[in-house]
Amino acid sequence: MSISLLFQKGTIGSMTLDHRILMGAMHLGIEGDRNQLNQLKAFYIERVKGGAALIITGGVAVLPEGGGDHMFCLTEQDHRDQLKELAEAVHQSGGKIALQLQHQGRYAKSSETGLEPVAPSPIISRITKETPVELSVKGIEKVRDAFIEGAIFAKSAGFDAIEIMGSEGYLLNQFLSPVTNRRTDEYGGDLNKRMKFPLDIAAGIRDQAGGDYPVIYRISGDDYMEGSTTREETIEFARRLADLGVDALNVGVGWHESRIPTVAATVPAGAFAYVVSDIRRAVDVPVIGANRIHTPEVAENMLKQELMDFVAPARPWLADASFALKAQKGDREGLNLCISCNQVCLDHTLGNPLLPVGCLVNPRTGHEWEWKIKEKEKSRHRQERYIAVVGGGIAGLAAAKAAAEQGHHVALFEAREQLGGHFLLASQIPGKDKFLETIRFYKISLDRLNVTIKRSAKPAVEELKAFDKVIIATGVKPYIPKQIKGANLPHVATYSDVLSGKVALGKKIAIVGGGGIGCDLASLIAQANDIPADVKSFFGEYGVKIDFPHHKDVTIISRSKRIAKGVGPTTRWVLLSELRRLGVHILKGFECREISQDGVWVRNDEEERFLKADQVIICAGQTADKALYDHLKGQVPVEVIGGSLDARNLNAARAIRQAYDLFYGCQSEATTY
């Protein structure tokens, strides 16, 4: 589509921006560590060069009790010094940067801060399992003054703007919401009292930082918490912020506790635009939208419909550091899109322990500084070589791309007609259709790098001996447990048989294995019982009620008592909720002992059961496909990556990283033989 509105100049207060694509705030899990400052600078500099009109930092704590692990805190002088260096580095690269001021309130963890969390009222947090201390009036004033002083620091340190974090269930949002604010003093009760604290902060910042310093407020458009701030209250709060002189409103949605997913791949693109639009119609300052705006075409459409004035995606900048630049050049094919898997970003920052942020589809993310050094070293000692990559799954595609980027002559062999391997199979799972975008990106990249691709090809050993090096990326095969009797019966299939379309589905289906693949497959099969949304909408317009009887009965048999345990924390609860909605039966703590013609025998320590089934699908893991390695061993230099190296818990992020490590000289998990 034509992209035009996105690249019109825009203003936020006194700040003029070259276009309308900002980079939203993200914690990287390395903030505050001076040893990681060069990496932090390198990360931001690449996004400046990639076209970000304005970068908003991850939240910076205004007080220690409102911070957390690997988070800048303004009470630390060294952190202030680092932030000043960071702003200077961004400016030297020609970019603009805003400092996000934050206090986590009841979301702060005493195990990380060493201090008791504080909040408007002592209401336990489902996230931390801690009950915060109720802030006194003096405590509230202390926090207010810390926000104001933080803005003054940001201006003196050279930051082009500040963003006040008042969304996602953090402290200022907690004061606004009756769910967490049960106070009876001047800071609690009706809306005027509940919004007094955040309004005092906004007014104080405007007064102390000056009328020309750009101030953005990150407002919660909808908390998605029962009994929380109403839409009418939110609109009134937005108007009051604008009246106080806030220059722009950045609209967030949902709390970490809300039961509506906001960042999962199952959320439709632009799903929360209506929330942003409601606020935009109520105020006369620019309004920024963020959630689920993952592609340039979606962003452009948001602006064309006048739903928002700017967009501030976050994770798409992890997937491609040149997100805006490629959109501006019209290089949609060359854009590496975020697939909203959360595996190496949000699952890292919200996990325990916290891990540095990376990106499944972009192994460079989080390693920009290290790679920059290695690239210089490699350029001095580069020798062209002829490299064969066997296997066109995600590991093989990544290896071929990395090798070609280093100037090698590369041939990729794939036994099937289609590239993508298990990544292609997984693209059929609900919410994982964006996996096709990653495969598309690699196809385009390999074509531009002049990689020779041979499909439906199984190279002979003699052919491969002509190469300087062979990389084995033949992947995995489904594992069939030997102890299961009857696994060879005709109505027994593997997950790959189903996803590749080799077998038709039965009506009463037993899935053996309650890991991520088994649960994903159950969700896919059970969704066939849903009435398609467009069909439901069509008949609804005419007042016709339709019923679609459930014709596929699905049961998951899980040996573990915790199903989908390998799925990340930000998406596991969404998957389990969907399985419940779809009526999937889940049998936990049972082992499949035998498969018969009409069902399966399962048992645990206490009992044995028989479950009727006309089809059994085995999702019991994988085994590495190393047959080719056995033939090549000792005849040609060969390396193994991906599932071929380690079939336990298929991990695309690990496979891609291994592929790149082979050619960028970083620490590698790949095994050389």
Automatic annotation (TrEMBL):
GO terms for molecular function: 2,4-dienoyl-CoA reductase (NADPH) activity. It is an enzyme of class 1 (oxidoreductase). Its EC number is 1.3.1.34. The keyword Ligase does not apply. Residues 387-632 form the FAD/NAD(P)-binding domain. InterPro entries: Aldolase_TIM, FAD/NAD-bd_sf, FAD/NAD-binding_dom, NADH:flavin_oxidoreductase, OxRdtase_FMN_N. Its cofactor is [4Fe-4S] cluster; FMN. It comes from the Bacteria. Residues 6-330 form the NADH:flavin oxidoreductase/NADH oxidase N-terminal domain. The keyword Signal does not apply. Keywords: Flavoprotein, FMN, Iron, Iron-sulfur, Metal-binding, Oxidoreductase. PANTHER family: 2,4-DIENOYL-COA REDUCTASE, 2,4-DIENOYL-COA REDUCTASE [(2E)-ENOYL-COA-PRODUCING]. In the N-terminal section; belongs to the NADH:flavin oxidoreductase/NADH oxidase family. This is 2,4-dienoyl-CoA reductase (NADPH2). It comes from Scopulibacillus daqui. The lineage of its organism: Bacteria, Bacillati, Bacillota, Bacilli, Bacillales.
